Amino acid sequence: MATVDDAADLRWFFANLAEVKLTQEAAGGQMSIVELSGPAEDMPPLHVHHTDDEAWAILEGEVSFFVGSNDPVRVGAGGIAFGPKGVPHTYRNETAARVLAICTPGDFADFVIAASSPAERPELPPPPPGPPSDEEAGAIAELAGKHGIELLGPPGALPGDAPAQ
Predict the structure, then answer these.
(1) DSSP 123-159
(2) Which pick of 53, 63, 66, 80 has the fewest CB atoms within 10 Å?
(3) CA atoms within a 13 Å half-sphere pointing along the CA-CB vector of 54
(4) Whole-prediction pTM value?
(5) What is the b/e burial string over 143-155, where b = at least 16 CB atoms within 10 angstroms of the residue's CB?
(6) How crowded is residue 111: how many other Cβ atoms within 10 Å of its Cβ?
(7) Inter-residue contact 75 to 63 (CB < 8 Å)
(8) In 3D, which of 25, 65, 110, 94 has the Cα closest to residue 4?
(9) Pick from 98, 133, 129: nearest CA to 21
């Protein structure tokens, strides 16, 4: 049985406080689990996972998921949503939210670690001074690609806006 240290590393992952609960390596290449705490209105770029299926368990708050469609599915605490690999998706926190992202086979956790920094405090990171520069956005897209994630559009873009997969 794989276990992870209870004193998991807290990370600042874009607008979220992230805690990697289980890495792909610790799970024998089968899955990863990341807990994400994010502010209301947080919405990552439209993207597609080419290698990971992703399920989200809402621990607190309410989140709208856009999976392959511009029609949102709103999920509250205790609910589950699913995004199969190869399907463009994004989400929007309708309230401050705490979510478990469960991915198989689990490369997402390694992306979170690579794209984040250690949290200076156990709270949400300070807001960035502005949008990322073209160079920063390119570096993020390249890093995501190394983890099987393709960025398809900026925050606010929906699956119906994506090029055909």
Answers:
(1) SPPPPPSSSPPHHHHHHHHHHHHHTTEEEEEEET--G
(2) 80
(3) 29
(4) 0.91
(5) ebeebbbebbbee
(6) 22
(7) yes
(8) 25
(9) 98
Tokens of 156: 């606010």
Rg value, the chain, Cα: 15
* pLDDT band for position 1 (cuts 50, 70, 90): very low
pLDDT tens readout for residues 11-56: 999 999 999 999 999 999 999 999 999 999 999 999 999 999 999 9
CA distance 9 to 6: 9
For 71, the 3-state DSSP assignment is coil
52 — alpha (psi -120 to 50), left (phi > 0) or beta? beta
Sign of CA dihedral 149, 153, 156, 161: negative
138, two tokens = 């390119």
Three-state SS letters, 74-117: EEECCCEEEECCCCCEEEEECCCEEEEEEEECCHHHHHHHHHCE
The residue to which tokens 């607008």 are assigned: 15
